[in-house]
Amino acid sequence: MSKLLRKPNNQEIAQGVTLVHDVTSENSSLEYVGFKIIDLAPGATYTEELGKQECCIVAVTGKINVSDRDVTYENIGTRKSVFEKQPTDSVYVSNDRIFDVEAVSGARVALCYSPSEKQLPTRLISASENGVEQRGTGNNKRMVHNILPDSDPSANSLLVVEVFTESGNWSSYPPHKHDQDNLPQESFLEETYYHEMNPPQGFVFQRVYTDDRSLDETMTVENGNVVIVPVGYHPVGVPEGYTSYYLNVMAGPKRIWKFHNDPDHEWILKR
């Protein structure tokens, strides 16, 4: 059984609230990244008290209201399916606060966590603020929605991004890693990938491996799965006929994204 691949758990934790995924430092090898997916029925509310963690609340699909008990953002969320390929709304909430997420419609919500000591303002990250970026060439093309990049000072540790990869293409490729605290060349960032596919019966392949192959695992990843990347390179391959979506959460001791390409495959960029 893979320690890196998580399949949906779908545990009802309150009326109308289903906990789909729950990745924590207690049940994984991650220290800096936590991740949940919750499904909310219309009118249902999820409440959480944050200790020394910050949280980015992403309206993956559906419409929600989000409150930290001081400020409320109503009717946020922009899409019924991630494959509409339009950016969505998110809310950043800092440590030592309580937040409520109420479903206006049926909604799937991602909760992205990292340790935090310095309290920052709660902030709506509207869809219009997402930087939309095209990366790669040839069969290495993908589209990126930058929700909480390292250029945005709204968070202490969190980095959050969405990536769309078309049929037959590769993503997070050539293989790269960010597992050494060796700035300015490379930063140490743990990562999670939440995957969806269109059509939903599809799958992708994701490999997580280190230079010395002490970690080397290739996974068949299905719709709704999560992959944990504590260290190592982590490319994704998308089979013909299917489109891939993933939501990345990254965090580490320093909030900067500097990656290192696998030298065996870096030639691909130099063709």
TrEMBL record:
Q: Which Pfam families match?
A: KduI
What EC number(s) does the entry state? 5.3.1.30
Pathway(s) it belongs to = Polyol metabolism; myo-inositol degradation into acetyl-CoA; acetyl-CoA from myo-inositol: step 4/7
Keyword DNA damage found: no
Keyword Nucleotide-binding in the entry? The reply is: no
From the UniProt record, which GO molecular function terms apply?
5-deoxy-D-glucuronate isomerase activity
Cite the InterPro entries for this sequence: Deoxy-glucuronate_isom_IolB, IolB_Bacilli, KduI/IolB_isomerase, RmlC-like_jellyroll, RmlC_Cupin_sf
List the catalysed reactions.
Answer: 5-deoxy-D-glucuronate = 5-dehydro-2-deoxy-D-gluconate
Source organism superkingdom = Bacteria
Give the record's keywords alphabetically.
Answer: Isomerase
Say what the protein does: Involved in the isomerization of 5-deoxy-glucuronate (5DG) to 5-dehydro-2-deoxy-D-gluconate (DKG or 2-deoxy-5-keto-D-gluconate).
By sequence similarity, the record places it as follows:
Belongs to the isomerase IolB family.
Protein name according to UniProt:
5-deoxy-glucuronate isomerase
Tell me what gene encodes this: iolB
